């Protein structure tokens, strides 16, 4: 094996071709089928002109075909770029322009999105578009280079190319403070380092039945997919339509899942709506969460109801690949207000809590959290400035050209060496598991003629979203003070999870002594309003 992500499937296909790799609804794919289909599609990508290092955009919802497309792009020695097709077209256009793809893969309802991108010349005329489904009759209304009917014409027993573990496997676009999403480059070696630690630590094995809850453009999904394939287990992607708490609970039960992994807001949502039954989900062996703080009261509720499972908190930004630290909660917490640690570093990773001069702070003192080690991304796609700001030379002696990543999170170590997350240092928040730059929301709002000035702040809440996004604005006129109209306009530019849930029209925004918007006062104002609601 060459240390590439696609090697996991190839190895399982060679040993256990008939074992089931993934199940989604009525569709089941064995490891042998997954290997054959991804090889065939990889050959078609090469025929369509893909060269090593080219990007392949996946404009499709989560599906078995999308996962085949991911593997095929890797086997063509390309970089895949999963697109959030539920985002507004304007935002998707910015991501697609930045990715500069050589081929687009699509299917289903996302076909119309690709048609819009072609019509507006976001995608260059003549750019090959491959369909991940068959067209027995009429096609989508624009030229298609190939569809699934063409796959059988290609060899299924071997991939067309191999690659190097240091090559970029995928680009994951996250929120950017200037209004432009940032493409985080993740190499094969980044993902494999975490996957191989996690499979060993959690004891993942062929009999496991693993949830695939996060969308494919969210980095947590890479853990579900590649850890499953590494262990030869079975992946159960959660359909995008499975949204309600009861539906999620039924999904766990009916598929007899042994591992559930999601963002804390989903676990909170399920608990508050009674979707976690007493002594429920007897098949579950592990419950994992990552992406934001899980309220301790919600954790207690889950642990009381699912006594047989282990519960592990994972922490890590996209730039450090899936997760960099972990903490398994050994017993039900006694205090609902006590925070859960983010724990200790995963193998090959380091957590550093540093002061403003990049010196370590003593245990108990608060500093900024930096990460070093095997998961550190090469940086942001085609953005040297942002890369140099976030990825710093390791200041410790003897580290050569090694780098550390500045997370922007505040943290402290206790005297036992456990790390605790204490919030953000900047305008970035976590809401519903998504990392959101509030500056991107402000940039979109400030482009509206109805807005004179605005400020967007995050306020911790008891709701399932974790952090509420709140907007204070000064309208250009009384007629422009309607929050519903502003929210509707904003929805054309930003995905739903970035839309403010609380609005306040003000005659003037509060300012501090430096004449800057006083965001602390705004947070206090929104916090007081929420506590009275």
Task: Record the SSE blueprint.
Layout: H1 7-16, E1 20-24, E2 27-30, H2 31-47, E3 55-59, H3 64-75, E4 79-82, H4 89-99, E5 103-106, H5 110-119, E6 129-131, E7 168-174, E8 182-187, H6 188-202, E9 209-212, H7 220-231, E10 234-237, H8 245-254, E11 259-262, H9 264-272, E12 286-290, H10 296-305, E13 310-315, E14 325-328, E15 344-345, E16 349-354, E17 367-373, E18 379-380, H11 384-390, E19 391-393, E20 403-413, E21 419-424, E22 428-431, E23 434-437, H12 438-446, E24 451-460, E25 467-475, H13 483-490, E26 502-505, H14 519-532
Helix pairs in contact: 1-2, 1-7, 2-3, 6-7, 8-9, 9-10
What does this structure look like?
The chain folds into 3 domains: 7-186, Rossmann fold, CATH 3.40.50.980; 242-424, 3-Layer(aba) Sandwich (Rossmann fold); 430-532, GMP Synthetase, Chain A, domain 3. The model has no long low-confidence stretch (mean pLDDT 92). The strands form 8 sheets. A 5-stranded mixed beta sheet has the order 11-12-13-14-15, with helices on one face. Strands 16, 17, 19, 20 and 21 form a 5-stranded antiparallel beta sheet that branches. It is globular and about 65 Å long. Helix 2 (31-47) crosses helix 3 (64-75), helix 6 (188-202) crosses helix 7 (220-231) and helix 8 (245-254) packs across helix 9 (264-272). The chain is α/β, with parallel strands linked by helices and 533 residues long. It has helices spanning 7-16, 31-47, 64-75, 89-99, 110-119, 188-202, 220-231, 245-254, 264-272, 296-305, 384-390, 438-446, 483-490, 519-532; strands at residues 20-24, 27-30, 55-59, 79-82, 103-106, 129-131, 168-174, 182-187, 209-212, 234-237, 259-262, 286-290, 310-315, 325-328, 344-345, 349-354, 367-373, 379-380, 391-393, 403-413, 419-424, 428-431, 434-437, 451-460, 467-475, 502-505. It has 14 helices and 26 strands. Helix 7 (220-231) links the parallel strand 9 and strand 10.
């Amino acid at each position: 094996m060459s240390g590439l992500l696609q090697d996991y499937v190839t190895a399982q296909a060679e040993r256990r071709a008939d074992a089931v790799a993934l199940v989604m609804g009525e569709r089941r794919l064995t490891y042998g089928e997954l290997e054959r289909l991804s090889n065939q599609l990889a050959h078609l990508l090469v025929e369509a002109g893909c060269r090593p290092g080219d990007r392949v955009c996946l404009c499709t919802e989560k599906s078995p075909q999308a996962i085949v497309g991911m593997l095929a792009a890797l086997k063509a020695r390309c970089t895949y770029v999963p697109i959030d097709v539920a985002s507004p077209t304007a935002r998707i256009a910015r991501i697609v322009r930045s990715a500069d793809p050589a081929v687009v893969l699509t299917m289903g309802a996302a076909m119309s999105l690709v048609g819009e991108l072609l019509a507006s010349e976001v995608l260059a005329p003549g750019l090959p578009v491959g369909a991940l489904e068959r067209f027995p009759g009429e096609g989508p209304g624009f030229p298609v280079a190939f569809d699934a009917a063409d796959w059988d014409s290609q060899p299924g027993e071997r991939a067309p190319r191999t690659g190097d573990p240091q090559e970029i496997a995928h680009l994951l676009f996250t929120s950017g403070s200037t209004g432009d999403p940032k493409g985080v480059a993740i190499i094969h070696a980044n993902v494999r380092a975490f996957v191989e630690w996690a499979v060993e630590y959690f004891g993942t094995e062929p009999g496991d039945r693993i949830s695939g809850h996060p969308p494919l453009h969210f980095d947590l999904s890479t853990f579900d997919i590649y850890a499953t394939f590494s262990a030869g287990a079975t992946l159960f992607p959660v359909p995008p339509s499975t949204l309600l708490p009861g539906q999620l609970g039924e999904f766990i039960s009916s598929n007899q899942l042994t591992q559930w992994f999601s963002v804390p807001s989903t676990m909170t949502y399920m608990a508050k709506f009674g979707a976690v039954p007493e002594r429920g989900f007897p098949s579950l062996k592990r419950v994992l969460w990552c992406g934001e703080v899980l309220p301790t009261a919600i954790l207690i509720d889950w642990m009381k109801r699912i006594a047989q499972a282990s519960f592990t908190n994972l922490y890590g930004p996209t730039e450090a690949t899936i997760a960099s630290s972990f903490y398994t909660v050994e017993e039900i917490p006694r205090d609902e207000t006590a925070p859960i640690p983010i724990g200790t570093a995963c193998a090959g990773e380091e957590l550093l809590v540093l002061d403003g001069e990049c010196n370590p702070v003593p245990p108990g003192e608060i500093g900024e959290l930096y990460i070093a080690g095997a998961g550190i991304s090469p940086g942001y796609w085609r953005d040297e400035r942002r890369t140099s700001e976030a990825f710093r030379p390791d200041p410790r002696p003897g580290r050569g050209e090694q780098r550390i990543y500045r997370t922007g999170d505040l943290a402290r170590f206790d005297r036992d060496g456990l790390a605790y997350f204490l919030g953000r240092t900047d305008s970035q928040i976590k809401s519903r598991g998504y990392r959101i730059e509030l500056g991107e929301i402000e940039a979109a709002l400030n482009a509206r003629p109805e807005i004179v000035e605005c400020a967007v702040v995050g306020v911790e809440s008891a709701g399932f979203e974790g952090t509420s996004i709140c907007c204070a604005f000064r309208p250009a006129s009384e007629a422009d003070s309607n929050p519903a109209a502003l929210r509707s306009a904003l929805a054309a530019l930003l995905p739903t999870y970035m839309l403010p849930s609380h609005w306040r029209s003000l005659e003037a925004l509060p300012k501090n002594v430096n004449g800057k918007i006083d965001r602390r006062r705004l947070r206090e104002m929104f916090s007081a309003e929420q506590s009275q609601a």
